[in-house]
Design brief:
396 residues, 28% helix
């Protein structure tokens, strides 16, 4: 694989407005997954990472200086935003993605694969020179873990890569906008315009990143990794950190923290004026919900609290509901790779918001989709489509 790292590069968008000559890449409307076959006509706009993943499965993670062989190898598209929008497209949404690749074989592969799944790539920026982003992923079959080694694309995306008219066109008709926290300068410009147009925003808060605070301040919904809430708020526990996030972010309707095989926790703000006399500590409330889990259930479930005033010691109180979602219990023989499981979860949440699913159905649905994706090598191999029998109970 030969990569060119040139310091002089011209960037163009697929829908124009650049001083350089333009390239137009076919959008998903010309692919086999055309918008006419979409289940929901909601337009979803995403901005973030779209990369190539080189996935190497190994019997066990190597020690320093080891030489080992792969048990299998796969090259496919990756990146948080690319994976999440692929998931949303397979479930029936009409997603558009803003990202940047180079005019190399990897970049062309990224575009082709997204288009084949029904993701509109016409707002991608394509650098004439440089390299597309890529990630080496080592999948440890013994420990059921994956290790990612990422090489960013060059030149990086900047706000000037997109004209104001391109941003307006990308947002036209969008009912929801999603950011994975990458490309933060460009993402902020898009998020500010989405806010001006009153379009809801979902943020993937995987970890603390440069520029993420500015994005989170505009968020309507946040889905975060297990470590993020406490790292961001410095709260003593995850539940109290979720309360802190809702208090700090007045626009936020809900926050979800994903916990891998332990499922997820969601805190939803109740904005309607209602008289609530009862107040309960958030950590005690979580414990009471955890005790209601049916440990013998294999399929994902959701346990919810009643609407109440929820208090975090030393932080404050909100009115809302707390939810505990369980993960699918996947037989060890079927669990192949957890790469992209969080992206699949988010893609499902994006779909659920557009479909107006209640949390009691959204959380098990997202867990079911994420679990299905763990049954193949790579983030997209086993991502289900909406016709998958495992999803039928959630989509009736």
């Amino acid at each position: 694989m030969l990569l060119s790292f040139s310091s002089s590069a011209t960037s163009v968008t697929a829908n124009g407005n650049s001083a350089a000559s333009l390239q137009r890449f076919p959008s998903s409307s010309s692919s086999s997954s055309s918008s006419s076959s979409r289940y929901l006509q909601n337009h979803l706009l995403g901005c973030g990472a779209a990369v190539v993943d080189f996935l190497a499965a190994v019997a066990a993670f190597p020690n320093p200086d080891d030489k080992i062989r792969t048990t299998s190898l796969k090259v496919q598209g990756g990146g948080n935003a690319g994976n999440a929008l692929t998931c949303a497209a397979r479930l029936g949404l009409n997603p558009r993605l803003i990202s940047k690749v180079a005019d190399d074989s990897q970049g062309r592969g990224v575009l082709t694969e997204l288009q084949a799944d029904g993701v509109d790539t016409s707002f991608f920026v394509v650098a004439k020179e440089g390299n597309s982003p890529f990630t080496y992923v080592i999948v440890d079959e013994q420990m059921k873990t994956r290790t990612c080694i990422h090489t960013p694309g060059y030149p990086p995306m900047i706000p000037d890569d997109l004209s104001q008219s391109s941003i307006s066109s990308a947002l036209n008709g969008a009912t929801l906008v999603y950011f994975d926290g990458r490309l933060h300068e460009t993402a902020l410009v898009i998020a500010q315009e989405a806010t001006r147009k009153n379009i809801p925003i979902l943020i993937d808060a995987e970890k603390k990143r440069e520029g993420l605070d500015d994005l989170v301040n505009l968020a309507t919904y946040v889905v975060c990794s297990a470590k993020f809430p406490q790292a961001w708020t410095e709260a003593a526990t995850i539940p109290s950190a979720l309360v802190a996030m809702l208090l700090r972010l007045p626009k936020l309707k809900f926050v979800i923290v994903t916990l891998g095989e332990d499922g997820c926790i969601m805190l939803e703000r109740w904005s309607d004026e209602v008289s609530l006399s009862e107040e309960i500590d958030v950590d005690r409330l979580l414990q009471s919900l955890e005790h209601r889990k049916n440990v013998g259930t294999v399929i994902p479930t959701c346990i919810s609290s009643p609407l109440t005033r929820i208090r975090a010691k030393g932080i404050g109180t909100i009115s809302g509901r707390l939810f505990v979602g369980t993960a699918e219990k996947i037989p060890p023989a079927e669990l192949l790779d957890t790469t992209g499981a969080g992206d699949a979860f988010i893609g499902s949440v994006l779909y659920a918001i557009c479909a107006n699913m209640p949390p009691e159905r959204m959380l098990p649905f997202a867990a079911q989709v994420a679990g299905a994706g763990c049954r193949g090598l790579g983030a997209r191999t086993a991502l289900p489509r909406r016709t998958d029998p495992r999803l039928v109970p959630f989509l009736l």
